[in-house]
Design brief:
By secondary structure, the protein is α+β, with helices and mostly antiparallel strands. The chain has 2 domains: about 5-155, NADH Oxidase (3-Layer(aba) Sandwich), CATH 3.40.109.10; about 155-185, no CATH class. About 35% of the residues lie in helices and about 15% in strands. The protein contains 7 helices and 4 strands; from the N terminus they run H-H-E-H-E-H-H-E-H-E-H. A 4-stranded antiparallel β-sheet has the order 1-2-4-3, with helices on both faces. The chain starts with a helix and ends in a 21-residue tail after the last helix. Bound molecules: flavin mononucleotide. Flavin mononucleotide (FMN) binds near residues 12, 120 and 158.
């Protein structure tokens, strides 16, 4: 699948059919994650694959009652270890590990879509509860739960702000209106 097709047609999927995702596809998604850029190429993102129904229900509860999460075939939990990044980058480390996680997550969402799967980025959860459920040491950060499965919905694209509303030319506030006509995908 062309990268632009994946970017434009990926949607957050929150309904899944009852069909397990093949291990080859899970491995492919994790390959996409580990090839994301990372600060200093330190590669501090780690992942937990959760397919146990009881644990998926507990994760749904930790995600403030987002019970649709438990219908996914697997939930991949995205973590970072921060000690090496902290030692090298000091106060910026907290931001940097978040950027690393976000880059890995976006690769995973696009890879899932390209493999015919549905997925969603879930970061609204109680971190301590997730740590408890999955036995994660507290020095790691938990960034996201990514429920993945075969989709049971095809949502319409939600609104996006047009290029001309988010882009400036040479200085902040100077809108680059001419890009409006060059936008290739509808708002
Ligand atoms: C940082 C972040 C946290 C998110 N957390 C949740 C969440 O907890 N639950 C959820 O259903 N969607 C969550 N989303 C998904 C957004 O709601 C979704 O990306 C947005 O509505 C745009 O829809 P689209 O992904 O289909 O383009 C999150 C997205 C991001 C980037």
């Amino acid at each position: 699948m062309d990268v632009f097709e994946a970017i434009f047609f990926r949607r957050s999927i929150r309904k899944f059919i009852d069909k397990p995702v093949e291990e080859e596809k899970i491995a492919r998604i994790l390959d996409a994650a580990r090839w994301a850029p990372s600060i200093g190429n330190l590669q501090e993102c780690e992942f937990i694959i959760v397919d146990d129904l009881g644990k998926k229900i507990q994760l749904s509860e930790a995600a403030l009652g987002q019970y649709w999460i438990s219908q996914a075939s697997v939930v991949i939990v995205v973590l970072t270890k921060n000690d090496r990044v902290s030692r090298l980058y000091g106060k910026k480390a907290d931001d940097f590990v978040k950027y690393d996680a976000a880059a890995a997550i976006q690769n995973m969402l696009l890879a899932a879509h390209a493999l015919g799967l549905g997925a969603c980025w879930v970061s609204v959860f109680e971190e301590e509860a997730v740590e408890r459920i999955l036995n994660i040491p507290s020095e790691l950060d938990v960034h996201a739960l990514i429920p993945i499965g075969y989709p049971a919905e095809k949502p319409n694209p939600p609104h996006r702000r047009g290029i001309e509303f988010i882009t400036y030319f040479n200085e902040y506030g100077n809108r680059w209106i001419k890009l409006k006509e060059k936008q290739t995908f509808p708002a």
